[in-house]
């Protein structure tokens, strides 16, 4: 798949809603080990609301689809999860405003904007044991794919693999943000739930582009 159309993004939101519903117990388990245990429920609710709102008010372009998902999180999901994931999706949508399809360059620009916004809003950087530890390598993978002129579908598969590696890198980390900061080992030994959600987002996008993607 060389470019990602509006229809791709609308289908992706439907698949993300289903993926997070299935993953809700797992994500809550990750969060429960180092936080308040509701991350999976928040992500599931955010994408369900995004799915509902985009069905009721269809987006006119890719930017509107991403911003619609971001607004669903910002308007309905409480806590840090709603703010940071909503900000990331909203910024990605703003970057893609007016575009009816995204090639790999536009895809990279969108998620790079999302990364910058999430870092600023969440006051987090790589190594803090947050979603950024999966999002930053995914964006870097998109950047490399854009430089090489790869199709968007292949770029998403590489971003998903990079996000998974980033998620796994959070296990030995000690948290520098969130509730885990107050724990004796600061969450060391556990996957960060936000990073796991970023990984699932990119995996789902990759599988929407190519059902054979891992």
CATH architecture: Alpha Horseshoe
Q: Give the overall form.
A: globular
Largest sheet: 2 strands, antiparallel
Q: Which value, in Å, is the CA radius of gyration?
A: 16 Å
Please report which band the strand proportion falls in: under 5%, 5-15%, 15-25%, 25-35%, 35-45% or over 45%: under 5%
Terminus-to-terminus distance: 16 Å
Helical content band: over 70%
CATH superfamily: DhaL domain
The arrangement of helices and strands along the chain is EHHHHEHHHH
Unreliable sequence segments: none
- Overall number of strands: 2
Number of domains: 1
Structure characterization notes:
By secondary structure, this protein is mostly helical. The protein has one domain: DhaL domain (Serine Threonine Protein Phosphatase 5, Tetratricopeptide repeat). It has eight helices and two strands, in the order βααααβαααα. α1 runs antiparallel to α8 and α2 packs across α3.
Give short descriptive properties of this protein:
214 residues, mainly alpha, Serine Threonine Protein Phosphatase 5, Tetratricopeptide repeat, two-stranded antiparallel sheet, 8 helices, 70% helix
How is the topology of this model organized?
Elements: E1 4-5, H1 6-34, H2 39-56, H3 62-76, H4 79-95, E2 101-102, H5 104-122, H6 132-148, H7 152-169, H8 193-209
Antiparallel strand pairs: 1-2
Helix pairs in contact: 1-2, 1-3, 1-8, 2-3, 3-4, 4-5, 5-6, 6-7, 6-8, 7-8
Q: What's this, in brief?
A:
By secondary structure, the protein is an all-alpha fold. It has helices spanning 6-34, 39-56, 62-76, 79-95, 104-122, 132-148, 152-169, 193-209; strands at residues 4-5, 101-102.
């Amino acid at each position: 798949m060389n470019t990602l159309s509006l229809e791709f993004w609308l289908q992706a939101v439907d698949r993300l809603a289903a993926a997070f519903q299935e993953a809700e117990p797992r994500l809550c388990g990750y969060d429960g080990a180092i936080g308040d245990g509701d991350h999976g429920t928040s992500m599931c609710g955010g994408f369900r609301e995004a799915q509902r709102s985009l069905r009721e008010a269809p987006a006119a372009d890719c930017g509107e689809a991403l911003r619609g998902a971001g607004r669903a999180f910002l308007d309905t999901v409480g806590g840090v999860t709603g703010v940071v994931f909503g900000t990331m999706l909203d910024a990605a949508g703003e970057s893609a405003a007016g575009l009816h399809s995204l090639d790999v360059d536009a895809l990279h620009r969108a998620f790079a904007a999302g990364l910058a916004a999430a870092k600023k809003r969440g006051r987090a950087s790589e190594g803090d044991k947050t979603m950024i530890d999966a999002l930053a390598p995914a964006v870097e993978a998109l950047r490399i794919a854009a430089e090489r002129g790869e199709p968007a579908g292949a770029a998403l598969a590489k971003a998903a693999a990079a996000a998974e590696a980033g998620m796994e890198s959070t296990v030995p980390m000690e948290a520098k943000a969130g509730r885990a900061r107050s724990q004796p080992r600061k969450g060391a030994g556990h996957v960060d739930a936000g990073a796991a959600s970023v990984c699932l987002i990119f995996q789902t996008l990759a599988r929407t582009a190519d059902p054979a993607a891992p």
